[in-house]
Amino acid sequence: MATCLRYPGKVVIVTGGTKGIGLAIVREFVHQGANVVFCSRATGAEKGQEVQRELQGSGCPGDAFYQVCDVRNESDIKRLIRVTVERYGCLDCLVNNAGTGYTEQIDDVSAQDFLNLIKTNTVSGLLASKYALPYLWETKGNIITIGNIVGVLGKENGNTVENSRRGSSVLSPPQGKGSASSPLFSKKSNPPSFDGP
Ligand SMILES: NC(=O)c1ccc[n+]([C@@H]2O[C@H](COP(=O)([O-])OP(=O)(O)OC[C@H]3O[C@@H](n4cnc5c(N)ncnc54)[C@H](OP(=O)(O)O)[C@@H]3O)[C@@H](O)[C@H]2O)c1
Q: Does 30 score more than 80 pLDDT?
């Protein structure tokens, strides 16, 4: 029986792909035939290598390759993209997923804490998109940014993390806008809150 893969041979980067939503995205792309480079901070390297081994040994049609990359560091992001293109020859899709939670309310948060949060949840996506773009133009590829529905709708007692994800909306044009005349499709996904794997 002929198999019909959705992403055969496509090259994808998923930031923060060792847990939760990012890991689910990595698995799905690899099962659908894509070659995926995914990352976490160095503290998650063991888990990342475990996921790489599992997917490479699973007989899936795609490939998975783990890299340490702290998305708060511009040089790490540049290296992630360079390694991906050196290994697979091009880039078709960037998924800006890496993010972190923070439960302090506005009256407890320091400016430095909030700046750190913005760096992880917002600036990282800007930089990854910036350095991926030259390759994405070549393939007419995609950028997917994982946002947060609370950042769009608001929430009573919403906390600082939700505000930081709201900032990521500057990275992607609203659906249906900005993409009509562009070969590059940029989309923001705003999942609701849940506990991931
Ligand atoms: N879960 C929800 O309810 C929910 C709802 C809406 C939106 N979101 C958004 O969806 C995204 C994923 O959420 P999740 O719940 O799946 O999170 P998660 O389970 O905590 O996983 C986050 C991933 O990002 C990585 N990461 C964190 N900081 C990083 C950094 N500085 N550099 C590189 N990698 C980093 C983590 O690995 P290490 O920690 O090992 O580095 C991990 O792989 C986030 O952007 C979040 O804001 C989540």
A: yes
The answer to whether the CB of 119 is under 6 A from ligand 1 is no
Least confident of 69-78, 106-115, 121-130: 106-115
Q: Considering only CA atoms, which residue is closest to atom 45 of ligand 1?
A: 99
Q: How confident is the model at residue 176 (pLDDT cuts 50, 70, 90)?
A: very low
Which numbered atom of ligand 1 lies nearest the CA of 191?
A: 6
User: Is 153 touching ligand 1 by the criterion CB < 6 Å?
Assistant: no
Q: How far apart are CA 21 and CA 38, in angstroms?
A: 12
Whole-model pTM: value is 0.89
Domains of the chain with bracketed CATH: 11-189 (3.40.50.720)
